[in-house]
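Sulfotransferase domain-containing protein, Streptomyces monashensis. Tokens?
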Amino acid sequence: MKETNLFFAVDTVLGLLPRSPAIVLTRAPVGIASSFARGGLWERWRYDDRYAQVSAPARAPRWRASFAALLPDDGPDPFTALGRLIAVKALLLARSLHGPANEARPRLVIPYERHVADRAATLSGLARFLDVPVPALEAPQPDQGQEAADATFATTGHKDRLTARLSPGDAAGVSESVAATFEAALQTLGPHVTGTTREWVAGDDLYELQPPSRGRPGSDRRPPLPWCPGPTMRRCPGFGGATCWSPTRG
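Tokens:
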């Protein structure tokens, strides 16, 4: 799964869209960690600050019992912290979708790994879910300069295999961090919520590990991206009034 900006506002934001279907876009933690490593995103997107920003409300009275222990202020390494963030964002969304206010809300889960393997099937399933005509697939564009040199963040092309440029230790670190967070959440959030999130983040085993790269050429010269601490949402192009929710930044 990708990282999210929903934070602890997910109940409020979903409440503003009571009749909107929910489309949950997921990705396996190893795939997310690979994109972070290849793009230098932990530093560019200031995720040390992001971790602190998310852990603060976790200790507030409303959330303390369920979430404070999941985001300890213990100076975690980036892969451990990323795993915790992936897990907590998924838990927050699953908790809300399983709550009384959202139990009847139509929802569809689209894993990144399934989408890049068969985009046509993804679009067909999405069109059926929304009861709209299936849009035509866009023709691939010719490679153009640096932006086309690395498909780290691409979701518009077909992929015959999934690779993660991580060391075995780093891949294990993020996977184990996610699993430990779900295990810790089991007692307070229950098996229904944690079971849903485990399904959402499945797929680490689909990735082939390759030696880490140094990141996209020139990425170290780019200024950090602006940091938006608030909730975000986006419309699905070509699909009417649906709102796409991503338990990860997209």
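Residues 145-149, 215-235, 237-241, 246-250 have pLDDT under 50 and may be disordered.
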